């Protein structure tokens, strides 16, 4: 087993505190800089996110991989807009040029409005059923040495076959907190991703996914996404946290705030974060939920606040539960990616001491 660190790469700077940059949506120099920063800090991959307004993720992934020598990508993809056979070949082609550096992050979609912007008017239950069928076909396209047929609820393929298949195995990461998500993810996911809940919540969710994966003989790995706010001292970290919250609240209250256009009411993951926030701003040792509360839990929005050593200690608490992937990104994306080098080193040293069989990636 390995401990894996994943960061975040985008084509322009964006965060809850600053909003989107004022320049072009695609800033090649910024993307290359942020990719190099993550590689220099010891990250294993960077997440390339997806929305109805995002630049094309496959192109961004290729740019990141060409700008670095070791860093991998976790490329988010929404099933339903590209045929699974085409998606399988797109990922396999990327993997052929950059062997063992490509992973797929399945985002079924929890925001109906965002789905409709791309012409998808299905409900969540239907989308998860479609994702199930999509991943079944995708695996067949990757694995089948001979032509295959498939007659599913959403996809029908006759004599499907690809001349390009992954040389190894492209891992499938999967997110979602609903019962449908756990059912489908348990069947297909190599890594199941959670947002940064309190430790008891993560323990509960791991048990749920393991139970869903058991009938398929799958040994799923687990990821937790958090927003560390670090400084040399705990006092300085909390001062920075309060500044981040103040700037976030200012943006949320703006008349044209993007947060007012988002609807996460049907997203179980967002609701779990808001439920935790309603019980208190701080959980466990230093899990801070105030930004999640301010933004309506718009995505990965819970933080760990403290010194480098304290944040590393809290991340180790998640690895003690069985988490082997830590997705960490900051509120100042580029500067934080560089600062996280100390956290990453401390966690890997701590894991090596606590569990010798777990080594750094």
Account of the 3D structure:
The protein has twelve helices and 17 strands. By secondary structure, it is α/β, with parallel strands linked by helices. It has a single domain, classed as Luciferase-like domain (TIM Barrel), CATH 3.20.20. The strands form four sheets. An eight-stranded parallel beta barrel has the order 1-4-5-6-9-10-11-16, surrounded by seven helices. A four-stranded mixed β-sheet has the order 12-15-14-13, sandwiched between helices. Strand 2 and strand 3 form a beta hairpin. The chain starts with a strand and ends with a strand. The mean pLDDT is 92.
Give the SSE layout.
Elements: E1 2-8, E2 14-15, E3 19-20, H1 28-41, E4 45-48, H2 57-67, E5 72-77, H3 84-97, E6 102-106, H4 112-117, H5 124-143, E7 148-151, E8 156-160, E9 172-175, H6 179-188, E10 191-195, H7 199-213, E11 221-226, E12 229-231, H8 234-252, H9 268-279, E13 282-283, E14 287-288, H10 290-295, E15 303-307, H11 308-320, E16 325-328, H12 333-354, E17 359-360
Parallel strand pairs: 1-4, 1-16, 1-17, 4-5, 5-6, 6-9, 9-10, 10-11, 11-16, 12-15
Antiparallel strand pairs: 2-3, 7-8, 13-14, 14-15
Helix pairs in contact: 1-2, 1-12, 3-5, 5-6, 6-7, 11-12
Order of helices and strands: EEEHEHEHEHHEEEHEHEEHHEEHEHEHE
Mean pLDDT: 92
**What class, by secondary structure content?**
alpha/beta
C-alpha end-to-end distance: 9 Å
Report the count of strand segments: 17
């Amino acid at each position: 087993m390995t401990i894996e660190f994943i960061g975040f790469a985008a084509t322009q700077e964006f965060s809850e505190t600053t909003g989107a940059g004022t320049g072009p949506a695609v800033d090649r120099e910024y993307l290359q800089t942020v990719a190099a920063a993550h590689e220099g800090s010891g990250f294993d991959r960077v997440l390339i996110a997806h929305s109805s307004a995002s630049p094309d993720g496959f192109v961004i992934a290729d740019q990141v991989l060409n700008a670095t020598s070791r860093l991998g990508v976790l490329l988010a993809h929404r099933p339903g807009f590209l045929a699974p056979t085409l998606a399988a070949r797109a990922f396999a082609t990327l993997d052929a040029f950059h062997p063992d550096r490509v992973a797929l992050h399945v985002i079924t979609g929890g925001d109906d409005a965002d789905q409709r912007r791309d012409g998808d008017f299905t409900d969540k239950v239907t989308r998860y059923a479609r994702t199930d069928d999509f991943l079944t076909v995708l695996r067949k396209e990757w694995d089948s040495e001979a032509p295959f047929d498939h007659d599913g609820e959403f996809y029908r393929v006759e004599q499907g076959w690809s001349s390009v298949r992954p040389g190894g195995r492209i891992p499938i990461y999967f997110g979602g907190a609903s019962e449908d998500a756990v059912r489908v993810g348990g069947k297909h996911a190599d890594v199941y991703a959670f947002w940064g809940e309190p430790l008891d919540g993560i323990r509960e969710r791991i048990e749920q996914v393991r139970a869903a994966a058991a009938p398929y003989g799958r040994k799923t790995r687990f990821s937790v996404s958090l927003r560390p706010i670090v400084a040399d001292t705990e006092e300085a970290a909390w001062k920075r946290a309060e500044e981040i919250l103040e700037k976030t609240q200012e943006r949320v209250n703006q008349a044209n705030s993007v947060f007012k256009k988002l609807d996460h009411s049907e997203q179980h993951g967002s609701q779990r974060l808001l439920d935790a926030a309603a019980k208190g701003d701080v959980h466990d040792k230093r899990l801070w939920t105030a930004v999640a509360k301010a933004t309506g839990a718009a995505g990965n929005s819970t933080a760990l606040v403290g010194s480098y050593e304290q944040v590393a200690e809290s991340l180790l608490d998640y690895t003690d539960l069985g988490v082997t992937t830590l997705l960490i990104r900051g509120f100042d994306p580029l500067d934080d990616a560089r600062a996280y080098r100390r956290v990453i080193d401390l966690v890997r040293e701590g894991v090596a001491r606590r569990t010798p069989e777990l080594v750094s990636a």
